[in-house]
């Protein structure tokens, strides 16, 4: 069975709420090329597909990994969590500092819920440019300390503490402690 590049591109574009013109503008290609690819009237070069996926943003690996196989999956081992750390760096322009990892449980888009296992080494920071996105998020600190800024509110949370807020309010996460901080969080709709 061959991979349906056009169908997959259209599915992803629509899921992101983008028109063909929007995606073309974001990726620096013509909307005609996107139309031809989606209709399977032309096969994109690797360079063209990479450029188009950059406008989403999405890696080639993510594009060719059909998430539908994860939709019915119920249980996940640690090695099956999807590393989204690079997506955070993409959305905040690479301003995150220190070692932090964000690993997602399953197919967030299929469930309209993103569950993350987050790890912040001492000094890790999502960046001085505050994050903002159209979601709601919350989480529980499992170990360590995490300074969370939401608008003009700032608090250092420790193991057992939790947070919940409207993600449209500018926010930031920083490990101000001396040990690794582990958080389990949820975001709906999915952000990364």
Detailed description of the structure:
By secondary structure, this protein is of the alpha+beta class. It contains seven helices and nine strands; from the N terminus they run αααααβαβαβββββββ. It has two domains: 61 residues, 434 Repressor (Amino-terminal Domain) (Orthogonal Bundle); 111 residues, Jelly Rolls (Sandwich), CATH 2.60.120. A six-stranded antiparallel sheet has the order 1-2-3-9-4-7. A three-stranded antiparallel sheet has the order 6-5-8, with no helix packed on it. Helix 2 crosses helix 3 and helix 2 packs across helix 4. The protein starts with a helix and ends with a strand.
Give me a quick take on this structure.
It comes from Microvirga makkahensis. Helix content is 27%, strand content 27%.
List descriptors.
3-stranded antiparallel β-sheet, 434 Repressor (Amino-terminal Domain), 2 domains, 6-stranded antiparallel β-sheet, elongated, alpha+beta, 192 residues, single chain, 9 strands
Low-confidence stretches: none
CATH fold label of the largest domain: Jelly Rolls
The number of distinct helices, counting runs of at least 4 residues, comes to 7
Strand adjacency order, main sheet: 1-2-3-9-4-7
How are helices and strands ordered from N to C?
A: HHHHHEHEHEEEEEEE
Please specify the SSE layout and strand pairing.
Elements: H1 5-15, H2 20-27, H3 31-38, H4 46-54, H5 60-64, E1 82-83, H6 85-91, E2 100-104, H7 108-111, E3 114-120, E4 136-143, E5 145-150, E6 153-158, E7 162-166, E8 171-174, E9 181-188
Antiparallel strand pairs: 1-2, 2-3, 3-9, 4-7, 4-9, 5-6, 5-8
Helix pairs in contact: 2-3, 2-4
């Amino acid at each position: 069975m061959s991979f349906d590049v056009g169908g997959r591109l259209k599915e992803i574009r629509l899921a992101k709420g983008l028109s063909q013109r929007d995606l073309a503008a974001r990726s620096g290609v013509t909307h005609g090329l996107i139309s031809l690819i989606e209709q399977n009237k032309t096969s994109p070069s690797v360079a063209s597909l990479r450029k188009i996926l950059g406008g989403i943003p999405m890696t080639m690996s993510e594009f060719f990994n059909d998430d539908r196989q994860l939709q019915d999956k119920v249980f996940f081992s640690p090695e099956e969590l999807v590393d989204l750390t690079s997506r955070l760096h993409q959305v905040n322009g690479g301003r995150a500092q220190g070692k932090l990892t964000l690993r997602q449980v399953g197919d967030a888009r299929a469930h309209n819920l993103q569950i993350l296992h987050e790890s912040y080494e001492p000094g890790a920071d999502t960046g001085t440019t505050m994050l903002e996105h159209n979601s709601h998020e919350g989480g529980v600190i499992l170990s360590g300390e995490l300074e969370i800024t939401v608008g003009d509110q700032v608090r250092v949370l420790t193991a057992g503490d939790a947070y919940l807020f409207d993600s449209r309010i500018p926010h930031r996460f920083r490990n101000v402690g001396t040990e690794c901080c582990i958080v389990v969080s949820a975001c709906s709709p999915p952000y990364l």
